[in-house]
Design goal:
This protein is α/β, with parallel strands linked by helices and 176 residues long. It has seven helices and seven strands; from the N terminus they run ααααββββαβααββ.
């Protein structure tokens, strides 16, 4: 019985393999020719060098520390973008300085450990860009709060630019 099942399975395997088309392995000459063809058609050869000044020299990269504020407390620290801290109470000024030996944490982890003295205010992208003002009730809560206040966008700290004052048209008319 076992032999009969084995023979029938072997027959079906042979039929399945007969449908597969075998091909020869590529020779060294074929591979060499394909490589030469690819090298001749290389689009990077047609690429010309960029003209004009080097953008890296015109806009040198900035230091992450120079673009960030440091929040440090209880042996841990995090970096937030400049202008993300909206309010610093006088009794928390020392938490805006690096303390030697502090361990760097992500904003998420640092905030989880320090929710007691940090309050976040969720802002829209338009508010962060300075195109819209922060809501009046949020401003009132900031004034009344004794916590350090950080602006966030989608739960991450974000810089808040000053509100852009729309330019009033002060076109002067001359009288004849």
């Amino acid at each position: 019985m076992k032999h009969l099942i084995f023979i029938s399975l072997l027959g079906s395997i042979c039929v399945a393999n007969a449908e597969l088309r075998m091909r020869d392995a590529s020779t060294h000459e074929e591979l060499s020719q394909k490589l030469r063809m690819n090298e001749q058609n290389d689009p990077m050869r047609k690429l010309t060098p960029a003209k004009g000044p080097d953008p890296l020299k015109a806009n040198p990269p900035k230091s992450m520390l120079s673009e960030s504020d440091v929040l440090c407390y209880n042996g841990v620290m995090t970096l937030v973008p400049k202008r993300a801290v909206l309010k610093i109470p006088n009794n928390m000024l020392d938490r805006m300085k690096y303390q030697r030996g502090a361990k760097l944490l992500s904003w998420k982890d640092f905030y989880a450990l320090n929710r007691g003295w940090i309050t976040t205010v969720e802002v829209s992208r338009s508010q962060a860009e300075g195109n819209a003002q922060i809501a009046e009730d949020a401003k009132k809560r900031m004034v009344d709060s004794g916590n350090l206040i950080v602006a966030t966008y989608q739960s991450g700290p974000i810089s808040v630019l000053p509100v852009k004052i729309p330019a009033t048209s002060t076109a002067m008319t001359t009288r004849p």
